[in-house]
Amino acid sequence: NIRRSVKVGGFFGYFDFEKPGKGVNEDGPKKKGFFHFFELYGRKIVKLVQLNLLYILCCIPVVTIGPATAGLTYVLRNFAREEHSWVVSDFFEQCKKNLKQGLIVGNLNLLIWVVLVYDFLFFSGWQGFEFMRFFILALGVLFAIMNFFIYSIMVTFDIKVIDIYKNAMILTAVRLPVNFLMLVTVGALVFLLLNIHPLIAILIALALAFSTIGFIITYYVQPIIRKYLMASDG
User: Percentages helix, strand, coil for the chain, rounded to the nearest 5?
Assistant: First the structure.
């Protein structure tokens, strides 16, 4: 998706969310994998803080979580692809562009999670239903992995909601073992955040938690989407 961005200036050169970064020497050696991720993360750290705060503010009404996540994912996708992106203007442009689908997906995801949690708790109160509890837990794991892909697909392709979920399901299945390891990694990061001092956890959440976890996921899914959904585009 190629969109025209409008630059939003700062105040006498300060607090400018849209100021271009220092840049990278194109002739220098290209890092790969783990090292490339941290190089990108270090270069984008200030913008990730800005994006994190912007995302939190836009999620406060709760019902706007879906469109806000679409905006967050679009900017993170561009960061992962090393494509330029204005944090504020691109974020709000994608919130608006994906407003309808974002609202549908956000509320549908919430409904699915409520049903899964309710069913798990319901069968936990009955003896002899271990299989049902395991089955519901497995569905929860698969749906969590699907959410790695849902918003990246939404902001990349102009397709219907049902096709977004269908493609997310396919990408979950084709790389299931590695996808599961990524889920465990993300879960471990969340676990660590929840088990440190509450004040520190809140500060980290406000500064970087959502954009960092989102960036890890978005960086991970881009090669998979490119390989399985964009191969026909060259």
Answer: 75, 0, 25
84's torsion region: left (phi>0), alpha (psi -120 to 50) or beta? beta
8 neighbors 86 (Cβ within 8 angstroms): yes
Cα distance between residue 48 and residue 187, in whole Å: 20
Confirm if 109 and 77 have CB atoms less than 8 A apart: no
Percent of the chain residues past pLDDT 70, beyond the cut: 84
d(CA 86, CA 79): 10
Residues in the chain, total: 234
Residue type at position 87: V
Residue recorded with tokens 């969310």:
17
CB 84 within 8 A of CB 20: yes
Residue 118, Cβ neighbours under 10 Å: how many?
Answer: 11
Lowest mean pLDDT among 31-40, 74-83, 97-106, 221-230: 31-40
Residue 191's CB is within 10 A of a number of other CB atoms, namely 9
DSSP 55-99: HHHHHTTSTTHHHHHHHHHHHHHHHHTT----HHHHHHHHHHHTH
54: left (phi over 0), alpha (psi -120 to 50) or beta: alpha
Planar angle of CA 163, 224, 152, nearest 5 degrees: 50
Q: Which residues pair with 14 in a beta bridge?
A: 11
CB contact at 8 A, 18 and 8: yes
